[in-house]
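#random but structural
TW: two for the price of one
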Amino acid sequence: MKKLSPFSRPISPAPPDYAAAGDLLRVFCVFMVAWYHIWQQSWLSPVLRIGAFALDMTSPVRAGYMFVDLMLLLSGFLLYLPYANDTQLPSRAFYQRRALRILPSYWLCLAVMLIFALAQPDFSGGDRLVRDLAAHLTFTHNLFEFSYTQTRLNVVLWTLAVEVQFYLILPVLAPAFKRRPMLCYLAMTGAALCFHRQWTEPMADTTLFVNRLPNMLDVYANGMLAAHLYAALARQRNRRGLIAALGTLACVAGAWGALRIVAAQSHISGYEPLRHGQLDHRWLFSLCGAAFLLGGSLSFTPIRRLCSNRAVRFLSGLSFNFYIWHQWLAVRLKAWRVPPYLAEANPNQAGEMPWQLHYTLACFLAALLAALLTTSLAEKPCAKWGRKRFGKRPS
């Protein structure tokens, strides 16, 4: 009998332990955050022109930092999904897997950054660099100004500090969420709202607090609730057509809502107003991301195939290493005059073309190459060693 194509079964069941839209969401969010950081260095107009057609990406690029929230949303979804399916690992095995997943690439990145920091001609403040490194090694670097906004290592690594801090409470939080999902959801969202309104927003300078874990609890709550609903709905077989139709509507509505919020955020100017806007939009923005993630993963088979195919899964597998390298490489390439530019300094301010375009492409290609090398030479070998050392674990 001829094997059916996935497109011949438009309402095939969604696997409860795998959310297809997560692959596309991860790739898109990492790409947009990278584009934002590269645009900060190049000032290349983010309008894509193909003949008479023009796609204006100005709003999502100017507010590209917002997509970090959706990366954390996806993390909350994926971390909680095994609990929703009763396939969670014991705490020790969970921490072993997380360590094998992030530490090899993270330590390699820190080592390279440290070497370059020490080699800088203007290097000074050895004690501060030691404290900076210590904070990064303990994943507390988002708590201190010297290791967050003034770090000599890699500024984008603050997201890993938030992630690891969330790992510490997940084995206690997730079982409670499974027993009382709505109560825990309201408690997490309420705690984040209180931290927003009562602690962070009254501050004259919110720099050190806007991206701390308490201000992210509503984002993680939206991810965990979406995973809870997904695990339940994916097991439904009798109403697959209705679930797929509603999922598609939720996916479209979530994407539309998220882009509307990004457009509103992109028109805010000034550092403090930007941070306040991000705090004000965070819960609703991540809720829209959760609608896209949940709906897209439950939608019709062709849509799920668009969200998760071989190319998207390949890029998704590189996304972690692409993320931790892209911003540092963008700054370095510009300092190294790669590609060369005519201005004495700041070719972006001079509007120097075609340097702006060539530099943007070079940044993306360099980050992709770094991701390929790090994944092949550090992440995968360490994962293989971990499987031998600790035994095979469910994926």
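TW: number two ↓
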Amino acid sequence: MFMPLDFLLRLLSNLATVALVGGGPYLLYRWYEGDLVSDRWLYLGIGLLLWSFLGFLPILLLHRPGRDEPTPLRSDRVQRLVRPDGSEIQVEFYGPDRAPTLILTHGWGPDSTVWYYAKKQLTDQFRVIVWDLPGLGKSPKPNNRDYSLEKYARDLEAVLALVNDQPAILVGHSMGSMILLTFCRLFPKRLEQQVAGLILVDGTYTNPLKTTTFNKLLLALQKPLLEPLLYLAIALSPLLWVISWLSYLNGSTLLTTKLSGFRGTETRGQLNFSTLIGIKALPGVLARGVLAMFKFDETVTLSAITVPTLVIVGKSDIATRPFASKRMTAEIPQAELSVLSPGGHMAFMERNQQFSEIIRAFSTSCLKLER
């Protein structure tokens, strides 16, 4: 997930990549010219050059393989929604058409394929609808450059309209949960008439800088440093996209994904999949989304939510720390909290079986289904 903390980690990773990619050839050139006499410089230069392009291999090999590793699974049942602002949304359907409906909204950075496990594990009982946020996956970026939470909440309302009058459970992870809270403010009647319950996963109710690790420092740096860097990322987007892929090859992006998303029980495939899915999007698109998150605040909305709500958080989430989930649980009238342990910001993948069972139990209760 591309939250503000991930932006900083990715920036450090990219800076290390520039130094690494340039350092190896530089040492080799200086050794070749005779400026560096010892053969140790030759070996160091070769080592840095190999690390620049093969560093990801030892990191992945140190992780255990899983029995069911995630893949970019897509459905052949697809609907394209053209929005009034000119953007177009890819909506995919899984499971029986007449089954109770779950609508899953992913976080910022990946696309709907991040719901690999939920799509496999919940479609025996539910119809699962996923969609790519415009700018990510197979939903083209909006022509008017509107990446606001309000824009995405209106897009979610259009996706919800596809199920007609059938009650649905809305699930959102990370920025997806922020979109759900914005939806609750903009469409209270929809909430009362068609939404049977909300599931907020590793989310927050306000500017995510306020609820992340090192929040005081990052808030102090928001205006003088972070925002200018984000605008610079927009301007240098193609260059940063290339550097991001080089960062994957040297392994640094794998390490930042592990640090910000997981807590040690992730499989090789989960780490690799989460890393790759996060670097496909253009850095300029990601930067615009982070700038939009800085304006987010739905604190007042919490007490106005009128449907049963399940708040799920990884016990060791450093991107949106658990105290944010505890506050949402305390202020939403019909809310309950579930903590995944061990788990970080990607606990819904790391603890996927437990996550799906929690979703199943809550949705069964909200929709009054037989177990």
